Amino acid sequence: MKTTTGYSGIQIGLHWLVAILIVIAWFTGEGAGEAMEAFEEGATATGFVPHVFLGLAVLALVVLRLLVRLGRGAPAAPGVPGSAAVLAADWGHRLLYLLMIAVPLGGFSTWFLGLDVGELHELGANLLMLVVLGHALLALYHQYVLKDGLLRRMMKAE
Ligand code: HEM
Ligand code: HEM
Q1: Which atom of ligand 2 is nearest to the CA of 117?
Q2: What does the alpha-carbon distance between residue 16 and residue 79 come to, in Å, rounded to a whole number?
Q3: Which one, of 138, 129, 110, 127, lies nearest residue 33 by Cα?
Q4: Does the Cβ of 95 fall within 6 Å of ligand 2?
C-alpha cells in the first residue's frame, strides 16, 4: 500500500463520522433486538428501527473508507519500521477494519436474511468496542505521554 505524509480530509472526516455512528449503533442495538422479538412473536411490520439504519450507514461508509485507503494510501505508523509497536499498530488497524465490516454483516444477516447470528453479532460488537477503547487510549497515550502529536494526524489534513 502507498505510504503518504498524512491522512486526507476525506479520510479524517470518515474516521470521526464512522466513530460517532459506531458508538450510537452500539447504544441502540437493544432496540433492534426488541424489534426482532416482536417480529418473531408475529408482528408483521417493525416500523423504523434506528439501529438498522445506523448499522447500514456504518457498513457503507467503512467500505468507502477502505476504498479511499487502498487508493490513496495512509501514513506509516510512527516508530521504527518493523518494530513491535509499529506491527501492533498496523495489525490493530486491520483488526478494527475487519470488525467494522464483519459486525454490520452479522447484523445484516440477522435482520434481512433471518440467520441465527444475533448473539455472534452482539459479541463482535462488544469486541469492537473493546478494541476501540484500547485504540483511543493508545492514541491519547501517544498524544499526552509520548507527546508525539499523533492526534494531530487525525485532525489536520495533509
Ligand atoms: C469507533 C471508534 C473508532 C474506530 C473504529 C477507529 C478506527 C481507526 C482506524 C481503522 C484507523 C487507521 C487509519 C485509517 O485507515 O483510518 C484509525 C486511526 C486513528 N485513530 Fe481511530 N478509531 C476510532 C476512534 C478514535 C478515537 C476516539 C480516537 C482518539 C482518542 C482516535 C484516534 C486515532 C488516531 C490519532 C489515528 C491515526 C493513527 C496513525 O496515524 O497511525 N480514533 N482509527
Ligand atoms: C458497527 C455497526 C453495529 C454495531 C456496533 C451493532 C451493535 C449491536 C449490539 C451491541 C447489539 C445487541 C443489543 C442488545 O441486545 O443488547 C445489536 C443487536 C442487533 N443488531 Fe446490530 N450493530 C451494528 C450493525 C448492525 C446492522 C448493519 C444491522 C442490520 C442491518 C444490525 C442489526 C441488529 C439486530 C437485528 C440485532 C438484534 C439481534 C438479536 O437480538 O438476535 N446491526 N447490535
Answers
A1: 41
A2: 24
A3: 110
A4: no
| Structural domain boundaries enclosing 78 | 3-153
- Residue 156 is placed in which grid cell? 489536520
pLDDT in tens, 21-51: 999 999 999 999 999 999 889 988 878 999 9
Question: For the residues of 1-66, what is the DSSP string, one character each?
Answer: --EESS--HHHHHHHHHHHHHHHHHHHHHHHHHHHHHHHHTT-S-----HHHHHHHHHHHHHHHHH
Cβ–ligand 1 distance for 77 under 6 Å, the answer yes
CA distance 38 to 26: 20
Residue 71 lies in a domain: yes
Would residue 158 count as lying in a domain? Answer: no
The three three-digit cell numbers of residue 137, written as one number = 487510549
Output the average pLDDT for the chain: 96
Mean pLDDT of 94-112: 98
Cβ atoms < 10 Å from Cβ of 103: 27
How many structural domains comprise the chain? Answer: 1
Its pTM stands at 0.95
DSSP secondary structure letter of residue 83: S
CA dihedral sign, ordered 30, 35, 39, 41: positive
